[in-house]
Amino acid sequence: MKKTMLTGVRPSGNLTIGNYLGAIKNFVDRQDKYESYIFLADLHAITSPQNPEKLKDAIYNAVAMYLACGVDPQKTIVFKQSDVLEHGTLGFIMTFQTKMGELNRMTQFKYKSQGLGKEGVDTGLFVYPTLMVADILLYNTHIVPVGKDQQQHVELTRDLAERFNKRYGQTFEMPDVYVAPVANKVLNLQNPLEKMNKSDSGDNRGTIFLMDDIEVAKKKIMSAKTDSSNKVHFDEENQPGISNLMSILSKITGEDFDSIEKRYEGLGYGVFKKEVADVVANLLSNIQEKYKKYNDRNLLDKILKQGADNARIVANETLNRSLVALGLK
Q1: 72: part of which helix (H) or strand (E)?
Q2: pLDDT digit string, tens, across residues 160-210
Q3: Would you kindly state where each structural domain of the chain is located, as residue ranges?
Q4: pTM for the whole thing?
Q5: pLDDT at residue 22 in the model
Q6: How far, in Å, CA of 170 to CA of 159, rounded?
Q7: Is position 219 annotated as part of the catalytic site?
């Protein structure tokens, strides 16, 4: 039997090439090898106040974008978190397995609550990691492709699963993290010491969005900051800018760093940047063309309904198993 892979998608705006290379592509490349699940984390989205219509639009947009990026609903179960009520029930149960100190240490909580004080933080922001734990455990997940900034949540999931299993008997699978070795973190093109972020302000020259105009995206690559050595060489510490562009090229094409360095030996950054720009442009063109096909709410509703129906079968079985373990059934 195939092992299970799961990831959650927060519907929070325009996706970047960093989102694609750091997370989406890792999932797409492995969806054939695993029993694959991908869910729209709409319950997580409401840990802060949302405009209902904008949230609904964001959910549809996120589904269409992930399908355009290669998530195949024939191979992967795609659904909305809120359509499978077992998420909320198991999430509530897992809060009773969790210490307040564990939630206080969660990086996202500490970051987002800075300056708000205890009275300014919604309870949802504090306890949402237990819902994330439920998201993972419901599907007997073996592997969770995440960025380094999300590893802490999978570690909490493992801790709580182990705690529950010791208290009540073997109930949950222990998930593992998968972090891609190349281009896991795509850096800002104008400041390669910072992560490329979709919330960048100003003219966004450092961020390439998947729906960017193709020529605009190419210009962003050509104007990316590098260094004065003019040597195509992977050295994240001393040449972060050119190393970032090499990571982008390597992740898209599959070519390793040694091969890239040999091809560009004696050549300057201008020629190299042009290749990266062309490769990125081709990627964006393909994604944007597929997005037009999937940006149909009737089609998306059918995909989400079928996905929820399939997900609910597994989630219900896992929830019932935990209720029996607790003595509630």
Answers
A1: none
A2: 999 999 999 999 999 998 776 655 678 999 998 888 877 655 568 999 999
A3: 4-183+297-326, 214-291
A4: 0.91
A5: 83
A6: 14
A7: no
